[in-house]
Amino acid sequence: MSRFLKKRVPAFLMTLVMVTTLIPMASAKSSADIEYEVDAGDNVTLEFSDFQNYYDKYESDNLYRMEFTDLTDVDSNGRMYAVDFEGDEVRVNEDDLYNSWFYASKSDVEDSGEYRIKGMNYSAGSKADGETAELAFTLYGDKKGELEGILRIYIGSSGSSKSGTISYSVKSGEEVAFDEDDFQKLYDDSSCTGTFKYVEFDRPSTSEYANGTIYSRYNTRKEVAFSRSDFSGTTFGYSDYADGDYDLSDLSFVADSSFTSGSITLSFTLYGGTGSRTNQSTTGTLKITSGKSSSTTSKGDITYTVKAGSEVSFDEDDFQKLYDKSSCTGTFKYLVFDRPSTSEYANGTIYSRYGKRNETSFSRSALNGNSFGYSDYADGDYDLSDLSFVADKAFTSGSITLSFTLYGGTGSRTNQSTTGTLKITSGKSSSTTSKGDITYTVKAGSEVSFDEDDFQKLYDKSSCTGTFKYLVFDRPSTSEYANGTIYSRYGKRNETSFSRSALNGNSFGYSDYADGDYDLSDLSFVADKSFSGSITLSFTLYGGTGSRTNQSTTGTLVITSGNSSSIRSYYVGNIRYSVTPGTALQINPNDIARYFKKCSGGNLMYVTLISLPATGSLYYNYYGTSQYGASSRTQMTAASAAGRMFAYSPSAKTEYALSELTYIPSGANYCTAIGFTAYGGNGQSYTGSILISVSTQAVPEIYSVTTKGTSVSFPATAISSAVSGATGASFSSIQLLDLPATTSGAVYYGSSVANTTSQYAYANLSQLRFVPNSNFTGSVSIPYVALNSSGTAMAMGQFSIGVVSSVKKFSDVATTTWCYKYVTELSSANIISGYSNGSFQEKNTITYGAALKLIMLAAGYGEQAPTVKGSTFSGYLAKAKADGLVTGNPKLNGSITRLQIAQIASKALKLSTTNLSNKKPFTDTNDVYVQALNAAGIIEGYFSNGTSTYKPNSTLTRGQVSAIVWRMRNYEK
Description:
Elements: H1 2-7, H2 11-20, E1 34-39, E2 43-45, H3 48-58, E3 63-72, H4 74-77, E4 78-83, E5 89-91, H5 94-98, E6 101-103, E7 114-116, E8 121-124, E9 132-141, E10 146-156, E11 165-170, E12 175-177, H6 180-189, E13 195-201, E14 212-216, E15 224-226, H7 228-232, E16 235-237, E17 246-247, E18 251-255, E19 263-273, E20 280-290, E21 302-308, E22 311-313, H8 316-325, E23 331-337, E24 348-352, E25 360-362, H9 364-368, E26 372-373, E27 382-383, E28 387-391, E29 399-409, E30 416-429, E31 438-442, E32 447-449, H10 452-461, E33 467-473, E34 484-488, E35 496-498, H11 500-504, E36 507-509, E37 518-519, E38 523-527, E39 534-544, E40 551-561, E41 575-579, E42 585-586, H12 589-600, E43 604-611, E44 617-620, E45 634-635, H13 638-641, E46 646-647, E47 656-657, E48 661-664, E49 670-680, E50 685-694, E51 702-707, E52 712-713, H14 716-727, E53 733-736, E54 745-749, E55 752-753, E56 760-761, E57 768-772, E58 778-787, E59 793-804, H15 820-828, H16 848-858, H17 874-882, H18 898-908, H19 928-935, E60 942-944, E61 947-949, ...
Parallel strand pairs: 1-10, 6-7, 11-20, 16-17, 21-30, 26-27, 31-40, 36-37, 41-50, 46-47, 51-59
Antiparallel strand pairs: 2-8, 3-6, 3-9, 4-5, 4-8, 9-10, 12-18, 13-16, 13-19, 14-15, 14-18, 19-20, 22-28, 23-26, 23-29, 24-25, 24-28, 29-30, 32-38, 33-36, 33-39, 34-35, 34-38, 39-40, 42-48, 43-46, 43-49, 44-45, 44-48, 49-50, 52-57, 53-56, 53-58, 54-55, 54-57, 58-59, 60-61
């Protein structure tokens, strides 16, 4: 109830709400927007798609949540159930219904009083025959759309008698047609007078309709598939009766491939009468019983063949053609698979981007729980063009069938849908070197030319007559064409590269055949640098006698990767974060601002997102506390991010603030990226990537100290321990994400300079070494991603090196002490020192004078001799006051606060306070020097539940100040 009072209805409106609910409805018998029928004592599921379709019919954004605003006889006639935030089905009484929110996405259900729309069901009372439960509701979209509606549940008598039954039998995966004369005979056998006109079916229960689908004109251009609600709201006319919505003679039932036993029963009412009248009716049942299982060669709407142990890619255009053949209007947008049975999904796995970066495998529930977008449709969870099925090695016979629904519509609407099946049949068992009719081998990054005589020989070996004239390629799938490009005259004058559609849209002539668009002898394939495995291209050869081209034969061209000099990897992280599962990650706008300044020298104005994380979710205003842009939590999608500007310094409440982007992990031990473009006031723009590592535990930094001019090899064992300790798994190789500045030195692999695209195997990791320049001292950080055997990133880590003149040791600072790096490097630079007994005492509170000295030395000031006898730090205070770093007369032996540290450090570094964000980083201080030092990345705050504090009045320890001073010394203006 607390959430309802806080977020729904202000207190002064509560009375108005109570009064309004007492006003009787104008027409209690008017048709509802969503209706269900259920027998007394039975259950009915409230289908999420019914609410979704109703919302899409009137609103253009996406359904986000639902509230119930008025209830009539819900508890008195039955019980409502819903799935709560813990995933349990619980009863929701009328009080709960009034005071709860029902969400479209399960990720938004986080607390008590919150439920999912999907999974709601109503259990009618056994004595509620003839009663009605009614619920008024309001649907809200993710872009402020709002739609009211009425849900009505009609309760009928249980086990009512029917006057007749029609029975059919169908094999699993096959179709059985309805015979309209069976319904006509049933009408004639009843007590009805006149002639039979049409039939209306009752709304089938979910279980009755779970084994197949009713179609009109199945497998024709005008094919229509009926959902449960569509089926019950439609009339099917007999013979020449013209007023039916569809012809009864066109109806058929297509059984799911898993419908191998049992039966379903559909209730209906037959209407007829004398002349044009339809005042006669009788009821009946249609029983459809499963016959034997269908043969393994039955055809689906879309059919692919795959060899055991191999991959077959889905061609998104096959699904688009199926949509266009249906009665749906508008354009195809996305696909949703039905949840496959265990047996159907036992022979392989469906992947997105199989074998590539951001590879994702789908479980049965995940396959059903995601949408797959067609072409440039941005709101799909994954791209349909990236899907493929990888068959198990044991999948040597038989087939699997996957049912799906295609959604589309006009403009941004997705209110059209049609269903279909994808059948994947096993071919012969594949060997690891599957051979095409023509086979070429190419090294990654290299070119292989096509020999036109290979194609001519294939034509001659076929049954075709005459001579070979030209070739046409089939349109390759996205995955088949993702590893390289086909060219005509590659590297020569008039070079032409072919897209997938262009490859299919042109003909390639053999020898002196003049009518080809291009010469077959000029074709070649240029492999990407990351190409491994093989691709298969299908083609058709055309020929004939004389000038005729009436002969044809098909074939396949297999291009296999040969040995490449090295394996490449292409992870990029201009800005890098690491996080553990269950932890929200706030994107720091200052990190992007520093990246932009480094690239352009200018100040960041705003950012646009060009890609979203493939795993996990990115939210705006995740904690619901922002005063800018969206007022509530909003999950970023490709559609909502498109064109959206996130301001570094928002100047109006309507602007979206860059500081309000939060990443929420999903799973563990992976890396994902967010692409962005940063814009400045000078018209400059730079693209970049935020790389996020999610591991079970944080990967600890590996730190090594070396003296000036001495090289350091990568500690393979320490890196392995760090990665395996964080992920629980071993890695196969690493990719370096960044290299040190040339002024500090270089990283070598053997005798060659290392790069940021090669994969360096764990077994050879010790061959990587950093060689500092002879006079360099300072700090070097080399970030990396750890890759598994497939080349997929598991986690991100960092190898850091301190290059010092000499190593100074303190008795109480071990290599495992958290501030070891800072103390070691600062002491070697003579900025920090310890006590006479050889200790450092990192936990001791630092004095004002000691902190002042360290800050000034780190900022480039020289040693300052005492100006007051017996006062070690008096010279530093005098210089600080003269330069405006300090005002007043602070006690040098007293403590120093975090606020004072920030003020002195900002002034000493001469940080600008004029180009700071209007969005203050901390809630407990507005001090511009604190903000400037935070923007420089030198100090941080304390973050909790969407709020950052600085704690300006807190004191600091010697260890904490060493970290600040180290960052000051390494700060790049």
